[in-house]
Amino acid sequence: MAKQPDEWNSAIDTTRPSIARAYDVVLNGKDNFEVDREFVAEIVKVVPEIYDVATYNRQILGRGVRFMVDQGITQFIDLGSGLPTVENTHQVAQRAEPGSHVVYVDNDPMVLAHGRALLAENDRTAVVTSDLRDPKAILADPAVQRLIDFDRPVGVMLVGILHHLHDDEDPRGIVEAYMAAVPSGSYLFVTHFCDSSQDSRDAEKKFLALLGTGRFRTVEEITSFFDGFELVEPGVVPLPLWRPEQPVPSNLTVGQRLMYGGIARKP
Predict the structure, then answer these.
(1) pTM of the model
(2) Mean pLDDT over residues 152-157, rounded?
(3) 212-262 pLDDT, tens per residue?
(4) HSE value, Cβ hemisphere, 13 Å, CA-based, for 73
(5) Name one Pfam family in it (predicted).
(6) At 210, is the secondary structure helix, strand, or coil?
(7) Does residue 238 sit in helix, strand or coil?
């Protein structure tokens, strides 16, 4: 793995798995440690398709960003973005609309270290190291203020991250805080682990035991994040069913039903 700046090496905890690094593992990335790979190996025991699930999540990110660009959205806040990999939000958005602005937010110091290198010559994109549970601080961050015009619609993205917030951390309130800061015509994009099978419940136990987070919510609970907003078709559905670009089998596997997602417009 590439050497990181000394100040970030001291902040990286290699004794326990990280959300961002574990996601990097299942996306077949190289920016992870043995502890992250061991965690994923345990998840594979209960959900053998977990690598495919990560791919479904990455694919819907691309479809969702392209959809929002088609609706005129050219600025995005990607909360809990994870480590840079292929088809990142800024690459998808700026391919569709070169003037798009993107701010990535993640609390893992490796995300900043890698993101800075990736974005060194891209002045329309920034990485903020902060905890998404503090909307006030993030919305006031200089990079966010520089790149996001809050008088124009914004794409607020919480892709594969809200399930890492416990109920007592008020994930619904956090979503509402971000959406309160953006104007009418903005979009909310959420994907989330779903309590959709016994395998999903077994996976939740593994996540909570080994990672400390991983709340698999029901479809109704996931849908409630969009309360007050206008869900776009087809609503909150298993990831492969959200505006697919290729045929999807009629009978979905456990992995294909492990995460649900949707996008809604702020009226």
Answers:
(1) 0.90
(2) 98
(3) 889 999 999 999 999 999 999 999 999 999 999 999 998 999 999 999 999
(4) 33
(5) Methyltransf_19
(6) helix
(7) strand
Give strand ranges (E) for 110-244. Answer: 125-129, 155-159, 187-193, 230-231, 237-238
Cα separation values, 212 from 39, 162, 205, Å = 11, 14, 10
Instruction: Please tell me whether residue 155 adopts helix, strand or coil conformation.
Output: strand
Residue 76 belongs to a domain with what CATH number? 3.40.50.150
Q: State yes or no: pLDDT of 161 exceeds 80.
A: yes
Q: What ranges make up the beta strands (E) of 130-251?
A: 155-159, 187-193, 230-231, 237-238
Give the residue numbers spanning the domain of 191.
Answer: 5-265
Beta bridge mates, 217: 194
| Matching residue, tokens 């990535």 | 104
* Per-residue b or e along 28-52, where b marks 16 or more CB atoms closer than 10 Å to that residue's CB: ebebbbebbeebbeebeebbebbbb
Looking up tokens 């001291």, which residue turns up? Answer: 10
Number of domains in the chain: 1
Q: Rounded mean pLDDT of 118-129?
A: 86
How much is the pLDDT for 11? Answer: 63
Amino acid at 174: I
What pLDDT, in 10s, does the model give residues 59-107? 999 999 999 999 999 999 999 987 767 789 999 999 999 999 999 999 8
**Predicted local confidence at residue 95, as pLDDT:** 96
Closest CA to 243 of 10, 109, 104, 63: 63
What letter represents residue 247's amino acid? P
| Residues 161 and 132: beta-carbon distance below 8 Å | yes
Locate 208 and state its tokens: 């909570």
Q: What is the pLDDT of residue 147?
A: 98
User: Are the C-beta atoms of 266 and 183 separated by less than 8 Å?
Assistant: yes
Integer Cα distance of 159 and 157 in angstroms:
6
Burial of 241: CB neighbours in 10 Å, binned 0-12, 13-18, 19+: middle
